[in-house]
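Reposting from the mailing list since nobody answered there.

I have sequence plus structure tokens for a pair of proteins and want to know whether others read the tokens the same way I do. The first protein:
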Amino acid sequence: MSAAAIRRAWVREVHTSLGTGLPGPGAAIGYRFRPGGLGAYQHRLETVDGAAAPALLIGFPVRGGRAGEHLRALHEVLKARPGLFPAAAVWHGVLRLPDGRTCHALLAPDPAAEGYRPLHGAPLGDEPPHARFALARALAAAVRDLAAVGAVHGGLDSATLLARTADHSVRIAEVEFASLRRDDTPLAVGAAAGYLAPELYDDLGEHPEPATEAADRWSLAVAAHVVLTGFHPYHFLLDLSLATIGGYAASQTWPQHRLAASAPFAVEYAAALASLPDAVLELFARCFQHGWRDPDARPSAATWLATLTAWTGHPVVTALHADRSCVLAGDTVTVSWHTRFAHRVLVDGVAGGPDGSRAVTVDRPRRIVVRAIGPSGTVEAATPRVEVVRVPPLRLRQVRPPFVLAAHDTPAADRPAPVPLRHLDPPGPPDRRPLPPPRPSVPAPPRPVVPARPGSPDPGRTARTGHTERHRP
């Protein structure tokens, strides 16, 4: 039979019905196989008594199961809290097939008609960080609603968690299979590989014991990790067997496995983890490291919701103050700040906490920029302009030290002695009076020469010694 063929059935009994326009006893229905079905709901209701049917999916639970009992208990809860689980089944009855056989059937709203997609099919790769955080918060709120009524789903995974990225809302499918009372045994829904809590399976398969709320906490942590980072928390391991995960958890501290990831994913995954606040990373560590062997250590859905709510929002610098508006060049200015929805702050490129203060050196007139980084984005703020006053350096004359060493008697050879100091008066101020102009140079007059006597044999000698010979007797 082709996927487009319509199959026929007739309503034999109606056990539970919550809503209007639903088929009653004796109604003829037509349904068609739905490619890419949703868990137990692999068909879509097409007609009711020949008329177009509302957007409902039809599912056939396991033969002999107690889906009807669980749905009846769920409808009792929904009467007191309408709209709590909008994806829950609204109808349970018995159908008679054309070959005469009978089977139980469930009708549930079609999430695709309202824009919901399974988590593994939602376009999360194109979502900005703030949208991912809002979606993770909606996941925690949906699981919190389960825990609020005491329900244990046991099958939370990427197929039963439905997301609508347009408004960041989440619904849980197949919630009618959850147990609402402690004495109930959860039905065999079973989470997909990678979402199932470690105490519920081993190397041989799933365990028969019933799931507990701790199993839903594990599944929620895995789903939140996939939404916030885009990766499964153990995406780097070869398999998800207990021996493989247990060996890693015993030798490493979460999330050190980002260093063991393959090179193309390691940088992207490390960047995704670095964008998360420490409070969220601590919840992951409590679940995947401590909660591996101790289910009670896993954070509850209410804890996840409170933590994610505190970080769901664009970062805002609520206060920014500089203690001085004018400084000398090279002095420091103390900048203090307060932020919201930011887990890291950069002050002039230096990392700091979401609230604090830091001394910044200012050597030119400028504004000091503070960048607040949060899981939902980045915002910048700047202080008022800080002016800088420059003082020219003083020219200091060289001054001879007032102490000089004075030589005295030589000390003993076996014991060194300190050299005494002799005090000198400091030099006086230099003479700043202008120097007189130099006198002009005057040539000396010629030296007189005595004339020689007539008949002198040596006139030169007579000239040199004339004054002596003149008085010689």
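The second protein, same order (residues first, tokens after):
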Amino acid sequence: MMRGANIIEGAETKQSRVWMVLLITAAAALGLIALFLGSGASFADFIALCVRIPLWTYVAIAFAQAAIVILAAVRWRMLLKAVSPQGQTLSLRHATAATTLAAIAGQILPIQLCTPIIRAWFASRFDIPIMRSLGTSALEQTFQLLVLVSAAVLSFLFLVPTVGWVFDAIVPILVLAAMVVFVRFAIQLASKLLASIADQGASLLARTATRLRLGFERAAQLPDRILTSVTALSLLGYAFLAALNVLLLNAITGVDILPLLIAYPLVLFLMSLPVFPGGLGVVEVTWAGVLAREGLPFDQAVEAALALRVTSTLGFFLIAPLLLAGLYPPKRSAP
């Protein structure tokens, strides 16, 4: 009886969490509508802004989104193979399908939460243990966090007065190359920093630091080849994401690329928060603030931020059917 009660209580807790996530998503959507109406933005101008984007741009967005998903799938299957005693992993086609399905779910749910769950469900159909899939997806997010911190450091360097454009070009390359080469040292340093935060008590920040530290400690146990490869692939994924958002926003508004590039780590951090799906609402507010600071009227800044969301999402759904080609596992022949 006690076991049955615990199962029912656990199911009710999970259901309440799902409802809470859905309520947060609905609140974010309503907040976005309120932002649009409160800014004085025009729906007609917003539609015209989206329509004005050339068709070839949507094709380019679709291919960029495909590259981002495939890179994530490559990282995941590489980590799956690295932690499996027999080197068991998924084919790239199947890993891509699982990652795409998670990205679709991430349009209405926090992607950091639904990605490990959907991947684990999909991989279990190929006899890969659920906990192994959950762990490797969390491990992949650890590398993404490391890259995000490095990008934030680079953004700060762009704000510091320098001796010229040669310095601006060389320093970021050296920083990124150093991160790939010395990734193990960076992971150990981050782990020690998080351990000191985790020792501060039972606050939410301390509990979060404890979870992150466990992820970094698992990452530090990987072979150097895997560490370097996954870090390089994470950097490449970040480059695609940054280029997609910054260049598209530059095309929509005409605002200089550099301030957009400097602001992007903050935008990606907000997108990465496991609260809002894809940073819905908070990302638009952030981009609108950046664009307004660069001289764009606030109503036009809001329209541009929403146009970025719509066009990038449409580009993803254009290519999603092709990425989902490996959704169904091959039929097993009868014995």
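Reply #1 (J.P.):
I read it the same way you do. DSSP finds 13 helices and no strands in the chain.
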